[in-house]
Design brief:
The chain is built from 22 helices and eight strands. With 506 residues, it is an alpha+beta fold. The chain has one domain: Cytochrome P450 (Cytochrome p450, Orthogonal Bundle), CATH 1.10.630. A hairpin with a 2-residue loop joins strand 4 and strand 5.
Length: 506
């Protein structure tokens, strides 16, 4: 979100709100040897240097120009440190995770009512409690339990694409929602107009808006805006965030209450929510009880957007690199003989398909600037001072486009993962240290199942005279710009396989 500052409407307010205390701050700090970065101006620091879009490219350029993999910006007295290499990110966010695992304020997110959810909680006991709950249900072995649910959702995806291929993006979102809400609450969602999906999508849209709105960052940087009326430029986002509270409540409270009622009646389906509620006892604290709402409640936000983004990138890559698609289809056919759909038992026999998933995660990471960390105490890295309270951003895109590690980084080239000494795993796409995404195993398995089954049954190509472009949105989660695609069954036999899947659309 830090790369999305539009300066035209905010500069005047910035100058107005900067007080004499900032002058004192700058005079006290100017002698510190921070990591290199653009030259700072009095009072406003690097406010004018902050990018309005594609910050991952701007920050990588700062790194190249300064000759440092760690760069620094000062915005209204707040320190922002960007890590542009795997070395720096691993050293600070992994090896020094004990002091780099906090989160920035995210004021607008808190106003929405999401501040007590796992992804945005500050480092501490409540965060650890929710993290343990996530890990219990989504570690590598546990994630394999959900394969039947993933298979059912992917088969429905295939049928939906066959029925209305032009709506493939909507079908991807439905697939992700079906998997997540089934695991979280035991819900079998409706094909259209599902109330749980609609409530979660409303919140997801709000988070996306907040993460791409420069006023949200300004609210974090200038806390005095919280005391300003909403008509003051930059302060209006407070009311916009608060308007999302009812949607957050519906997303968290309604399914939780229904699972409680089903447990009491003895009719509850297996789910994360049912398991967590059943584990409560008389000795459980209020925070334990809240965790039973927040952990399942935030799963849709944590998993839906990222899965849809990754699979959208897959479809885009198959259009732009048809030779990759043909090679992958040949590999799948060699295993299935076109007489069945591939499944998880085929994973080890499909190295090229596996490499495609790795390349999807690398080529355009779903969170190109990760989710910001916050440094809890002063630190020094390679002679540069990083002050406590700094917002620390892993530039995942730059890390995944390091030409030394990934030659021809802008090319979608799965073969890079099949050499004798392949590059490191693209796990950085899921974050670092103690803040790494707990649902990464489920996300990878769901994406792999969708990719391999789509390759087995459909041909993907560009619409005539409408080639897609590699243009991505900017926000916490980044998507390809909407594009048209021609999706057709590979053969009548492939269409018959899709029609013959075990679970019928409802």
């Amino acid at each position: 979100m830090l790369d999305l500052i539009r300066l035209d409407a905010l500069l005047a307010l910035a100058i107005l709100l900067i007080s004499l205390s900032l002058v004192t701050t700058f005079s006290r700090r100017h002698h510190k040897k921070y990591p290199p970065g653009p030259r700072r101006l009095p009072f406003i620091g690097n406010l004018l240097d902050m990018p309005s879009k594609e910050g991952w490219i701007t920050y990588k350029k700062w790194s190249e120009e300064s000759g440092s993999d760690v760069v620094h910006a000062d915005v209204l007295g707040s320190h922002i440190v960007i890590l542009n290499s795997a070395k720096a990110a691993n050293e600070l966010l992994d090896k020094r995770s004990s002091i780099y695992s906090d989160r920035p304020q995210f004021t607008a997110i808190q106003l929405m009512g999401l501040g007590r959810t796992h992804g945005f909680l500050p480092y501490g006991g409540q965060w650890r409690r929710q993290r343990r709950a996530f890990h219990a249900h989504f570690h590598s072995a546990a994630s394999k339990v959900y394969r039947p649910l993933e298979t059912q959702a992917v088969q429905r995806l295939l049928r939906n694409i066959l029925s209305s291929p032009d709506n493939f993006s909507q079908h991807l979102r439905h697939m992700a929602g079906q998997i997540i809400l089934s695991i979280a609450y035991g819900i079998d969602i409706q094909p259209e107009g599902d109330p749980y999906v609609e409530a979660s999508e409303r919140v997801l849209e709000g988070v996306s808006l907040v993460s791409s709105d420069p006023r949200a960052l300004f609210l974090d940087m200038v806390p005095s805006l919280m005391r300003m009326p909403s008509w003051v430029p930059g302060a209006g986002i407070k009311e916009e965030a608060r308007k999302l509270i009812p949607a957050v409540d519906r997303m968290m409270e309604t399914p939780h209450a229904e699972v409680e009622a089903a447990l009491a009646a003895g009719t509850a389906a297996p789910s994360v929510s049912a398991a967590m509620i059943s584990q409560l006892s008389e000795s459980s604290t209020e925070e334990d009880k809240l965790a039973t709402k927040y952990v399942p409640g935030v799963m849709y936000l944590a998993g839906s957007d990222t899965t849809v983004s990754a699979l959208s990138t897959f479809f885009l890559a198959m259009i732009l690199y048809p030779e990759v698609q043909r090679k992958a289809q040949a590999e799948v056919d060699s295993i299935t003989c076109r007489s069945r759909l591939p499944d998880f038992s085929d994973f080890d026999e499909l190295p090229y398909v596996n490499a495609i998933l790795n390349e999807v995660l690398r080529w355009h990471p779903v969170t190109p600037l990760g989710v910001p960390h916050r440094l809890m105490e002063n630190d020094v890295y390679e002679g540069h001072f990083i002050p406590a309270g700094s917002t620390v951003i892993p530039n995942v895109w730059a890390i995944m486009h390091d030409p030394v590690t990934f030659p021809e980084p802008n090319r979608f080239y799965p073969e890079r993962w099949l050499v004798k000494d392949p590059p490191p795993s693209p796990e950085a796409a899921f974050g670092y240290g103690r803040r790494i995404c707990q649902g990464r195993y489920l996300a990878c398995e769901s994406s792999w199942a969708a990719i391999v089954n789509v390759l087995a049954t459909f041909d993907i190509s560009a619409v005539k005279d409408k080639p897609p472009k590699e243009i991505y949105s900017y926000g916490m989660v980044s998507y390809p710009e909407a594009f048209e695609v021609n999706i057709r069954p590979r053969s009548d036999a492939a269409a018959a396989l899709v029609h013959g899947t075990a679970f019928e659309s409802t």
